[in-house]
Amino acid sequence: MQATEIRELNDQELNHRIAELQEERFRLRLRAATQPLEQPMRLREVRRDIARLKTVLTEREKGIRAQGSTGTKAPKAGKEPKAAKATRTTKAKRATARRGR
Hints:
By secondary structure, this protein is an all-alpha fold. The chain has a single domain, classed as Helix Hairpins (Orthogonal Bundle), CATH 1.10.287. 62% of the residues lie in helices and 0% in strands. It is built from 4 helices and no strands. Helix 2 packs antiparallel against helix 3. The longest helix has 24 residues. The termini are far apart. The relative contact order is 0.12. The mean pLDDT is 83.
């Protein structure tokens, strides 16, 4: 399940989906303890989907993102561009200093 799909759901649907996935995770863990799973990656997918759902719920509670947001961040005001990359000699001096010479 992708974050864009999750953000389209309302809070009640998110909670319902979390409960379903937690139930599936429980059953997968029980089955994994007694026999080998056909799709062992499914356990990881379910765990990560639960985390994504909970993250979206927390964002909404804290007001970090609006419901139905596209997920793109707006640039911060007053942010200056990064400094230019260090030259080769500067990098060489740093490497030498780390070696203790």
